[in-house]
Every structure is written in structure tokens, then in C-alpha cells.
Amino acid sequence: MDSRVITITSGKGGVGKTTTTANLGTALAMQGKKVAVVDADIGLRNLDAILGLENRIVYDLVDVVEGQCRLRQALIKDKRLPELYLLPAAQTRDKNAVDSIQMEQLCQQLRQEFDFVVIDSPAGIEQGFRNAIVGADEIVIVANPEMASVRDADRIIGLVEAAGKSEPRLILNRLRAEMVKRGDMLDVADVLEVLGIDLLGIIPEDEAIIIATNKGEPAVHDKRSKAGHAFFNTAQRLLGEEIPLNEVEESPSLLERLRRLVGFGPAPTEKRIRSQSS
Amino acid sequence: MGVFQFRIGRKNPTPGELAKERLKVLLVHDRLKLNPAQLEIIRQEILEVVSRRLAIDEEQVQVSLTNADGAEMLYANMPIRREKVKFEWDPPSGNYHAYVLEPDSQDDEEQK
User: Fold this and answer.
1) Number of domains observed in the structure of chain A
2) Which CATH number is A132's domain given?
3) Is the residue at B64 inside a domain?
């Protein structure tokens, strides 16, 4: 079977890379895929805590790369999903403990065992980021609808291109529909226009994420939560399902603009033409 | 076409629109790796070339970068000085070289 290595990255820190990695990995495993989530944020490990696996770590990614243990010894099985495994980051080392060649080899090894390898990239554009993307088939950029995050996302798009990877896709995280409606926040169409890449998912801002993190159970386990539902749909799209991008339903005008972007739906009204030219 | 275009019928841009316009300008600078000093050099050079033919109001010249329809754009607003436009009553003299304007030609000197 062809396995896929997907790296979740963002440039800016704190936009939700680790949360996205945990939720997409979990959602893919819920769909019956064999999934490894890899924490490539060496020195600042967090993916273990979001998955609630922090007490089970014996070996980590650096141990595997340095040959201190076998890959299977370092992989931690998820509490709930038998097909989901975590490869944790080292906490006592730094980002330069691993090089690109070692990471590429590690990805190759993981491909033998898993359908999906989802890599959580560290923030920044240094060696850690390069390591995270070197073995990836696909790059997913997480951004929030705000200046600094979109700016950094644009920088990452350039670097991904320069690395010879296929065009990354975007997950717009922490969107606040009521703020977009008031005109107080960048909306989905704005961000897509500025960045010029395809959209994979929209995740609304949701307290359920904080609650889920506190419990150590990714929000996607509870599909009634807005964010959990949105992450589930995003994972479905990764699997090639055509799920309409309607995660943020509070704002119909947003939906209309999205339909227009995707290329179907009602003909543009005067209002939309105006906002298009703005 | 101005750099800052906002929805018709609205006095002030919303914070969301402002963010979008600021981002467009910011990203063009980032992508082209152009800092304000380099843009100033470009401004000077454009001014130099255009001033050979037209009297440009140097202080009003604005050169800026933005993104329009997915392409990076350089905007140069160069107002032409009214009072400097010389009205020639006399038909051109037999001197055909006068038609070829050169940067250091006499014509230029006269205008200054």
C-alpha cells in the first residue's frame, strides 16, 4: 500500500500545529487507517500531552535515530485507537540532535509500517522545520486569520516551494465567525486570496479544544464539538472525500464567498462583486 | 487605482479589510525581499527617467508595492507640475535636433 507522509507546519508558533496533528492523526485512525503521529519538535515535546500519552514514554525519536532503540520500541500505542501510534520527541535534546538525512531515513522506515505518517513540525524556519518537511509527500500549513500568522504562512509557502515539494494546502484554524461577520477579522476568502493556495479545512475557534487538551483526548473524538467536527471533515478531505467547506455556518456570506472560490453555487451578486474587487 | 481600495459606500475600512490590505503590501515586500531603502532607489530611478520628458512634482511622487489579482504590482503615482508646462507659441525652428530630447539638452536647462 502507498503510504503518505504529511507534515503539519506553520512558521509561527501557537497557531495550532500540534492540536491539528493530534486531531488529524486521530481522525485518520478512526477511519481505520494505520497512523503514526511524529513529534518533530525536539526539545519542546507536546504532542504526547495532547494525546494523553505523556506517562508512557520510554524512548523517543532521537533514540531511534541514534540507534539506541528500535523504532517499534519507541512507538507508543494510543489509549483508545489500536491503529494510532505516537513517536515522541526528545525533551532533553535540541533541534540539531537530528539531521535531514536521518529524518528522511526515519520517514522511510515509518512508511513500511503505516498508511499515514503525520509529522508535527516545530515553529520557525530553522533546521527543525527543514527536518520536518524533508521526508514529506504533502505539506499542510496551519494559519490563524491574523496578520503575523498569515505572513509567516506565506514565508513557509516559499520555503516549501524552494525545497521542491508540491504546493502546500491550508488549514485555517481558530476562525471566529462572529468577528468575521462584523468585519473585525480576516475571512477565509481574504486569506486564500493573499496566500494563493488551496484550502483543506476551516476550524472554528472552540473551547472544546482547551477542554480536550486538558483531558488528553483530541477533540475529534467528540464530533458534536464544532472544532472536532471540523477536524474530522478535514481528515476526510485528506482521504479524498468531497466534503463541502461549511464548518463555519454562522456566516452565510462567508459560505457564499467560499462557494464562489470553489467554483460553483449561485452567480455572484453585486455585493459580492464589490467585495471581490476590494 | 490606488493602493488602498475599499468597499464602495463605506467610509472607513473594517479592521478585517485593513488587515487584508496591509498584508498584501507586507507580503509583496517579503516576497521580493525589498526594503524601503531599495524601494527609494527605484523611486529615484523612475523619477530620473520620467523627469527627462515630464516635469514631475518630486515631493508628491509615491512608489509602492501591492498585490492585485494574485500578481505583485509596482504603483508609481507621479503628479505632473502644471506651472512647469511651457506653452510654445512659436513654431519649431529649423533645428530638427530640438525634437530629440536628451537628458542634458538645452530644453531641459531652460525649464529649470
Assistant:
1) 1
2) 3.40.50.300
3) yes
pLDDT of A267 reads 46
- pLDDT, residue B91, reads 58
Whether B99 maps to a domain, the answer reads no
- ipTM tops the 0.90 cut: no
pLDDT of residue A66: 94
Q: Give the count of Cβ contacts less than 8 A between chain A and B.
A: 52
Exposure string of A169-190, with b = 16+ CB inside 10 Å and e = fewer, is bbbbbbbbbebbbebebbbbbb
User: Minimal Cα distance from B23: which residue of A?
Assistant: A147
pLDDT at A272: 40
DSSP secondary structure code for residue A140 in this structure: E
Smallest Cβ distance to B17: which of A150, A183, A194?
A: A183
In a domain, B112, yes or no: no
Has residue A195 been placed in a domain? Answer: yes
A276 located within any domain: no
* B108 in reach of chain A (CB within 8 A): no
pLDDT value at B1 more than 50: no
* Other CB atoms within 10 A of residue A105 CB: 14
Q: How many domains does chain B have?
A: 1
Within 8 A by CB and 6+ apart from A134, the residues are A100, A103, A104, A107, A163
* pTM of the complete model: 0.78
Range of the domain at B47: 15-85
Report the pLDDT value the prediction gives residue A208, as an integer from 0 to 100: 96
Q: Which domain holds residue A47?
A: 4-250
Instruction: Look up residue B56 and give its DSSP letter.
Output: B
In a domain, B109, yes or no: no
CB A106 within 8 A of CB A40: no
Average pLDDT, chain A: 90
Using CB atoms within 10 Å of the CB of residue A1, give its burial: 0 to 12 exposed, 13 to 18 middle, 19+ buried: exposed
Using the Cβ of A147 and the Cβ atoms of chain B, whether some distance falls under 8 Å is answered with: yes
Q: Which residues of chain A have pLDDT under 70?
A: 1, 247-278
User: Is position A269 within any domain?
Assistant: no
